[in-house]
Amino acid sequence: MAHPSPRLRPDAPKGSFDMRVCSSSFFLVRDPASVPISRQRLGRLIQQWKVRTDNDSRLALDTVISELVTNAVRHTTGAMLTVGVHADLDLRRLIIEVYDGSQVMPRHQITGPDAETGRGMFLVEHLAVSHGAEHTARGKKVWAEVALPGQPLTRRQLLVHPRRAARAVIRRLSGPRRPPIHAPVLVASSAR
Question: pLDDT tens for residues 50-66?
């Protein structure tokens, strides 16, 4: 089971850990059956870390991890893939990295309207805030950064940062207000 690894933020007080940054990695066999497994593993990490997602961010995360793993399965060599997942809840970003043993960088393909493949990196480019590929000592890393919706403040943050907590309360209270709901007025009609 993957566990979040707390990282010390540069602006954090000495001796404190900010659990709003979570990081984990897992291995996959380079096989087409690994694509749905990668989505399931990502979903479990998101749930374990209590990351809030909406429909748009969940669709983007599922599509991005599917495309990155599919490309690694189809276009690389080696028996295993490594997937890294890093969430920074303060910055509202989640980074997905897929490591493989090939030095060949991904590229856009020109596809016809009836082609069933060749659109993966195009989708990643449009769903991610940023993306890229880098050579590593053992191959390459292809990554994408996906935006997350606003995350709730933790109790610890409320205690350590009372000003931030006060601003959050003010924002919530001064947000758009709904008009009061009034009961419908029944008009008596005289039917003669």
Answer: 898 989 999 999 999 99
| 145 token code pair | 């950064």
Which two three-digit tokens encode residue 113? 């309207």
Alpha-carbon gap, residue 117 to 108, rounded angstroms: 11
Among residues 22, 40, 53, the alpha carbon closest in space to that of 146 is found at 53
CA distance 153 to 156: 8
> Which helix (H) or strand (E) element contains residue 142?
strand 139-147
CA distance 129 to 148: 10
Q: Which residue has the tokens 């793993």?
A: 69
d(CA 64, CA 51): 17
Taking the whole predicted model, whether its pTM rises above 0.90 is answered as: no
